[in-house]
Amino acid sequence: MENLLEIRGLCKEYSDFVLKDIDLTVRPGRIVGLIGENGAGKTTTLKAALNIIKPSAGQIRLMGGEPSDQQVRAEVAAVFEDSFFYEGFHLLQVEKVMAGLGGVWDREQFFRDCDRYRLPRKKTIKEMSRGMRIKLNLAVAMARHPKLLILDEATSGLDPVVRGELLNVFMEFIQDESHSVLISSHITDDLERGADEIAYIHGGRLLFQRDKDELLENMAVLRCSEEEMRRLPEGLIRGTVKSAFGSAALVEEPERVRSILPGAVIDRLTLSEMMQIYSGRNV
Ligand code: ATP
Description:
This protein is of the alpha/beta class. It is built from eleven helices and 13 strands.
């Protein structure tokens, strides 16, 4: 089955920011987590994939076709932080608008999801909590029966119970192996639990896209003196950071590192610590 999204060499230039040579692939049946510091270029990448902004260079294939193609776009649903609906709308009015747009619209599924998310029918969007609004956006997105669901920071600010529910929804969604989810998030714990792959954008460049389990198994955090770190061969250290308590390094091949430095502390990698070390900030 073809890849749902393929981005090759994507560049976008703004006056004070450059997104450069981004390659990203979303294969069928995968949840891909997009991580990166504030302003790294995640939203810009997702907007380019959705044809909301025009890239300066690069190729984007969505469902094997052009992102500008209406038929292609009909198979993709995006959930952003904000609601696109008029704030005075109730659920029934949202449903009417969506039904009137044409294209695939599953009314029964929409109301089923709204009930499952316990969305109040009597409240307007303005009166809903942030979590309710995001669930509404998700119910709308899913009722269009997309193949690819793209979420930009949509789960930030939600409580852990709701985020857990949404992770379950995404995992259910990809079960049939033809659907995929591309989700940008600062909540790295969620991606550690739910994502199959991690793509990391740092300062406008893609550092890597890797299988999450492989990444967490083959990278670790080494805590030791700088003198000890110098004993490691080149290529094993991916980044270092100093703190009041000593130095920490992001290392590949933890078992090999352990054999060279048997006394050193080697901790399991977390995505959050990985980002802190890559960005050179104190842990
Ligand atoms: P965050 O985690 O804070 O949401 P992000 O990784 O999604 O960040 P982007 O929103 O892609 O980052 O922004 C990347 C850079 O591009 C930022 O410096 C931002 O100011 C800049 N940028 C985004 N949109 C525009 C625009 N329309 N005009 C000029 N600069 C822009």
